[in-house]
Amino acid sequence: MATLMRALATDVAAEAPAGRASFRAIVRDVLALGQKQGAVRSDQDATPLAFIVIGLFITTVLYALKIGKPVTAHQIDWLLQLVFEGIGARSALK
To answer: How far is CA 19 from each of CA 16, 33, 66, 69, 93, rounded to the nearest angstrom?
Structure first.
């Protein structure tokens, strides 16, 4: 929790060195672009949404390291689908 709270702060020391974008900034920028395109909910700021996505990926990667199997591109696509569609029942309307 302390790490997440530190990351949420506007502390520039937590960012990547000058001239290199941080992974957090890249994810935030991709989500912000998705918001502009209408693919990602726009009622929330992109920064906390980025932390949710990063948090899910961190736990997925840690699990993959624990069991000794790499995370495949298909699994990443599946995880992103779950993140964007949610874990609730699928809607009958599409």
So the answer is: 8, 21, 34, 33, 45
| Tally of CB atoms within 10 A around 4 | 11
pTM exceeding 0.70: no
Q: With CA atoms as reference, report the closest residue to 24 among 2, 1, 42, 3.
A: 3
Cα dihedral 85/86/89/90 (nearest 10)? 0
Q: Give Cα separations from 2 to 6, 9, 64 (angstroms).
A: 6, 11, 24
Q: pLDDT tens digit string along 20-58?
A: 778 888 989 999 999 999 888 899 999 988 988 888 888
Within a 10 A sphere around the Cβ of 2, how many other Cβ atoms? 6
Give the span between the Cα atoms of 40 and 49, in whole angstroms: 9
